[in-house]
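call fold(seq) -> tokens
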Amino acid sequence: MKICLYLEFYHFMGGFLYKNIGTGLLTSYRNQKELLENLRIDYTEKWDNSCDILQINTPWLRSLWIIYKARRKGKKIIIWSHVTAEDFREVFRFGKLLSPLVKRYLKYAYGLANIIFSPSEYTKSLLVAYGLPAEKIFVQSNGVNLKNYFKDQAKRETTRRQYSLSKTVVGTVGLVVPRKGVDTFLLLAKKFNDHDFVWFGKIYSKLMAQSLPRVLPPNVQFTGFVEDGCAAFNALDIFVFPSHEENQGMVLLEAAAVGLPILVRDIPVYQGWLVHEENCLKAKTDEEFVFLLERLIRDESLRNHLQKNALKLAQKESLEAIAARTLTVYQNLIK
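ret:
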């Protein structure tokens, strides 16, 4: 068996378009490579006719051309549904305008696959609502690489010194776009002004996405892109993720792997794997975010309880744990 893993423009100009972004898409792609190496499956990142399976990560125009070539050769096609119209809508300024066109395009592109990998049951439900057949859609976690994300005291101390962080540090990791809940994060920082708040992640120009307020609370830092994601998580005491829309939310698995207590917005994508009061806390409103964050700050036993169960979740969703069922999908596809 040989698989072609393909991410459009990933190798263009030495990967220029993907440098200093730090998205879940990139992490998923790297996890896929690690998974195939663990399974000892031969793979390439450029299409050739020796491949049995073409696995596409973003089905944009060049990817479609490669899909057509592979189909003519009788090869099997897997497409990851990393993108939906629902999450595209709230990323860039032009998202709401283009989301109806994106939805139609994605329905067509995903429909070319023999199998669609969906990061969650929620995303699968969206694709079925588009009109895609449920039997083609396999829920497949992006997983978390426990060799890259783990508790590390040295990284914690170095990163906290670098950003002058002290006391209880509340933070998050991800792109700085409105969909991720920037407004809620800033509200929490104002309410808890005796604690440090830090957001690790790329900040887009105001031409691409709504810019941050000119005046930020004095206890808040937006660092921009950071190379070492593990160090970023280790710098935190509490992980807050107020995103309004996700297809899985890989940073939650990474925060769990580092052993952080997690506070998230209560949205459908987390149903079935993030459980309130067990491995996270869930808030529906800004008022609930304030109440639950105060609980986390004050209650050490609650933090310890959530940390322990979050780590169990990360182990359940590790690349090693999902390897066997992924291999079964590949084997059944080429039979």
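DSSP finds twelve helices and twelve strands in the chain.
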